[in-house]
Every structure is written in C-alpha cells, then in structure tokens.
Specification:
Blueprint lengths: L4 H19 L4 E6 L2 H16 L4 E6 L4 H9 L4 E5 L14 E4 L13 E2 L2 E2 L2 E4 L14 H12 L7 H10 L12 H11 L4 E6 L9 H6 L13 H10 L5 E2 L2 E2 L7 H14 L5 H4 E6 L12 H12 L4 H8 L6 H24 L4 E2 L4 E4 L9 H9 L10 E7 L2 E7 L2 H5 L4 H11 L3 E4 L3 E6 L4 H15 L2
Parallel strand pairs: 1-2, 1-3, 3-4, 4-7, 13-14
Antiparallel strand pairs: 5-6, 8-11, 9-10, 12-13, 14-15, 15-17, 16-17
Helix pairs in contact: 1-4, 2-4, 2-5, 2-11, 2-12, 4-5, 5-6, 5-11, 11-12, 11-13, 16-17
The structure holds cytidine-5'-monophosphate and zinc ion.
Amino acid sequence: MPATGGNLRRMERDLSEAATALRGSRSVLIVSHIDADGISAGAVASITADRLSIPRRTVFEKKITEDTISMVDSAEEDAVWICDLGSGYLSEFGRSGIIVTDHHVPDPRWRRDQTVLDSFTSIHHLNPHVYGMDGSYEVCGAGMTYLLSRAVDPSNTDLAFLAVVGAVGDFQDSGESRLVGLNRMILRDAEVNGDVLVEDDLRLFGRETRPLTQFLQFCNEPVIPGISDNPSGCTAFLDSLMVPLKENGRWRVWNDLSPDEKARVTDGLLELVEFNQRDRLLGEMYTLPKLPSGTGLRDAKEYATVLNSCGRYDDAETGLRICMGDTSALAVADRNRAEHRRHISTALAYVRDNHLMRERRFLQYFDAGSEIRETVVGIVAGMLLNTPECRHNLPIIAFVDAEDGTKVSARANRDLASRGLDLSEVMKTAAGLVGGFGGGHSVAAGATIPPESKEEFLDIVEDIVSSQVF
Ligand code: C5P
Ligand code: ZN
C-alpha cells in the first residue's frame, strides 16, 4: 500500500483521535526507547504532557520485554504513550488507553480494535507502515511522536527540531544524503521556527567538536584514498591546501574554517573520490543555530550522538534533560560521551585486532562475547560494515552476551535493501525459529536468541538472506 493522499488523510484522522484521547487523560506513563531517536521522542512526549498539565512519568527501555508489558498493563496512569517502541508487540498488551507512536515494523497479528481474549484492547497505533510509508527513512519514532504533539497543539512546532535529531540519529538521511518523505515536512516546521538550518556540506561526523584531522580520517562512507584511516595523510592534505590545524593553540574544527577554506578542502576531497561516490560525501547537514557551539549540540548528528552516549550507558535521563533544555546536564553528558568514544574505539579495536570477523557465503559475522555492550554492538557493527576489512555487499551479524541470552545486531547497506533484503524480517523469523525474538528495520535490526543456537541461527539467517537477495 503506497503513501497516497488518502493514506495521509487517514493518518491525520488517527492523529487527531489520539490527540483527543491524550488531552482527555488525567495522567500518562511515557515509555520510550534508549537510543537517540527514542530519547528525542520521549522528550517530545514529555514536553507535550507537561504543556497540557497532565502529570507524567517517563521511563526508558532497551526493548519491549515481558516485564515492560506487565509494567504497561499494571501502570496506574490512565494513558500510556509508547514512543519509538511497541509496534512489534501490539497484540501482547492487555489494557486500554495505549497510544503508540513508533516506526518499527508492526506486529502482523494485531488488528485495529481487536478483542484480546476477554479484554477489549484498543490501541491508537500511529506508525508510517500503516499508511504505506517506510519507517526506515520516511519518518522515525520521534517524528511520529512529534506529529501527535502537533496534533495536540499546533504551537508545538518548536519541538520539530527534536524529530530532526531523532531522524538523523536513526540514519534516516543516509540513503539520499538528506531527509525525505514526512521527515522533510517536519524539517520545514523546524526551519520555519529558525530551530534548524539546512546546509549543503560534507557529510562527515563532528563538524562542531572533532579536530580537523580526526574529522577527515574517520570518513568511511565513501572511503577516501589517502584520507580515510590515515591521520598523517590528512595532515599532509590540509597542509597542502594551507589550512592551519590550530588557531591560538587550540585545535580547529570544521566549523571554525572560513567559507574559502571549506571550499578548498571540499574540492580537494571531491577530486579524491570516484565520481559516483560524490553524492555520499556531499549532502544536507542540519545545524541547530540556537544551541551553543562547541558543545556537540549545534549539529543534529552530534546532538544525536550525545543522546546515544547517555541512553546506551543507562543514563537516558540525562539525554532527556538535555532535550528539555537543561544545560546543567551537559557536563554529565560530556562524561558520557567520552566514555562512549572510549568504548566504541576499544570495541572496534577488539574485533579487528583479534580477527573476529568471519565470512560465509551470504553474510559476515563476529562474536564479541562480553567485550562489547549489547546497547552499542549495533553501532560498532554499522561502523565496521564500511571499513576495508568488511564486505560492503554482505550483511553483518554481531553477537554479544546479554543477561537474557545472546544479543544479535544486524546491519546492511541500503543497496542490499533496495535489492530486497529486509533484516527486520530476517531477525524476526530466524530468532523465532530458534526460540528467541527480534525485529527492527530493513537495514538495522536485532534479536535475542538462546546462546547455544548461534550456529543454527546463522544457518537460518543465511537461508533467508539468500532467498531475499541473491
Ligand atoms: O540493538 P540494535 O541497535 O542492533 O537494534 C537495531 C534495531 O532493531 C532497533 O531499531 C531495535 O529497536 C530493533 N530491535 C528489535 N528487536 C530486538 C532487537 C532490536 O526490534 N530484539
Ligand atoms: Zn527509532
């Protein structure tokens, strides 16, 4: 079912019904996901409830588990607003008053207004897939949450920038090097408010906070010969263009450069990459001009990383405080970010130095045991996918030990998805067959499986991947 005017009208109507339900509630429990999109979504929902003067409690979860479901079912609040989570588990909830604003692939067993045993469960389910849109790039969890917030009160457009942060945090801009679909409409709201500035720039991470050499060397999509993974190459390149690395004894960052310096570096890099890769190097970048420079909050992608580095280390609340404008939370977030950086680089080195990557015909995988956190392994797998030691055209599967079994993260590049790969389906089916559970998106999905079933799980994953793509 493609996105049509009719579908959009249906979505508007459903949003308006959910908004009426929310306005009429006496209290609300907000349950959101711990990643950047989830924290932005949780913040939009929390601010919306606060503005309605509805008492609220906000909690963050890694995933929906049986415990989350019983917490939701037994919550005292008369409304439960689940953000960036929940769509995969709709038929499991057993209470009324639930609103879900999510973009994960929905639970196929659920029907609108269905009767679950003898309890009548009606859920306001707001998810792009229901309206013929693709939740992996057209709108994210924070975006759906924002659309509901705007339906509650049109003056909530000052929250649109949080939905932009959520979308880039979920890499929704990576396919076309810019935001598209409903994300584009949300971006317009943020632009009109002066909260987001759209700039054509290098699509590299760290425009606000990374010293120039690091800014360039970590470019891996596309790989730039002589620059990627090559700090001395970067220094020589900048030297040759007469771009000083320091100013008044301080390392310069990309946004310290003059327009002329930026143009010289950009042109120089474009000459080094193949013509068909240029669209990936250049594209839209989103600046948040009202936020202080040097903090990592002024660039949407860096803002998302600040949130990730809180949520994935059990401190989503600090991320929430930042989204709600509490600048005193920044010092804590800085410590979280330093920890995040350390953990990611140790994790990458661990996989590389121990040669953990294994290749099969239709996939590549590694098992990091207890050396990488289950909340970060997906980020690490995604980063490895674009390095020279990985096959760009095969999905990557990562295993780590978790409390409740083996955590699996799967990532693939978008060209595989456009050839039919759907990792969400792969994870859900393969995990289900070995007694686990999983889901997610076409290019990023995850699962939890029994530890003794890894080999069998890989066999099944390989079967499904080959039937979808090869
Ligand atoms: O944990 P990871 O970053 O690999 O998750 C990738 C995507 O898959 C996320 O959107 C997450 O919500 C989803 N996922 C899921 N069920 C799981 C694990 C992950 O839907 N058991
Ligand atoms: Zn999300």
